[in-house]
Write a structure and sequence with these properties.
With 250 residues, the chain is α/β, with parallel strands linked by helices. Strand 4 and strand 5 form a beta hairpin. It is a peripheral membrane protein.
């Protein structure tokens, strides 16, 4: 077990984010500890994805600080690229390179960014593809795979960089219903292996099953955070009660 489990890994302090006059994030304070799975939920437009994207600086922040493993996010350049390598990101759309095989998609980062030897990168990539259940697809192109398989490849690609934390921005929302569980099962497995994860999702079952903490956002604010058990059975804020009541009726 990781001896450092439980120590802060991602610290978001007093973060504000504006798009012109619109404030997308207001006074965001969030600490994610090593080995913790934090599930971010809330209505559409609540700032969940924006928050997720600020953590590896795909979105800049207006003010405040974000640190990963004690280092503040650099503005740009090589330092940012190096820090980004510590932060795996899985998007709603799979963003695989369509002209590269599955194996090449997964080895590209380790070879290009980390200078890994091709043979070593391929060996590790095959092990990761096995882990996410698509080892047989290694020589195919992305278009030959289902959406669920492509998303599992995207997870393997992020893991290939050996990140300290994994960010998931609605990883199942573009998938057909029957493919959602195959992706969530991989994510549950990662959580059980102790991977630090921040997951923006509408999948409440995943939040209950794999989350250590639920962060509920609305209107660019963190309204409430609690254990999944507490949040789903006894939400404290009216906003969360309203959100949950609408979920249960559908």
């Amino acid at each position: 077990m990781d001896v450092q489990r439980g120590q802060p890994l991602v610290v978001v302090s007093d973060v504000q984010k504006h798009y012109g006059d619109f404030q997308a994030l207001t006074d965001i304070n969030l600490t994610v500890n090593r080995g913790e799975v934090v599930v971010v939920i809330g209505p559409s437009g609540s700032g969940k994805s924006t928050l997720c994207r600020t953590i590896n600086r795909l979105e800049t922040i207006t003010s405040g600080t974000i640190t990963i493993d004690g280092k503040e996010l650099p503005k740009e350049g090589k330092a940012l690229a190096a820090l980004r390598a510590d932060v795996g990101m899985v998007f709603q759309s799979f963003n695989l390179f369509s002209h590269l095989t599955i194996l090449d998609n997964v080895t590209l980062g380790p070879i290009k960014v980390k200078g890994m030897k091709k043979a070593d990168a391929e060996r590790e990539a095959r092990a990761l593809l096995e882990r996410v259940g698509v080892a047989q697809q290694a020589d195919k192109l992305p278009a030959q795979l289902s959406g669920g398989q492509q998303q599992r490849v995207a997870i393997a690609r992020a893991l290939a960089m050996k990140p300290k934390v994994m960010l998931f921005d609605e990883p199942t929302s573009a998938l057909d219903p029957e493919m959602i569980n195959e992706v969530l099962d991989v994510m549950v497995g990662l959580a059980q292996d102790g991977m630090t994860m921040i997951v923006v999702t509408h999948e409440m079952g995943f939040a209950r099953k794999a989350g250590d903490r639920v962060v509920f956002m609305a209107d660019g604010l963190i309204v409430e955070e609690d254990t999944p058990e507490q949040f789903f059975t006894a939400p404290k804020s009216e906003r969360a009660k309203d959100f949950l009541s609408k979920l249960i009726t559908h």
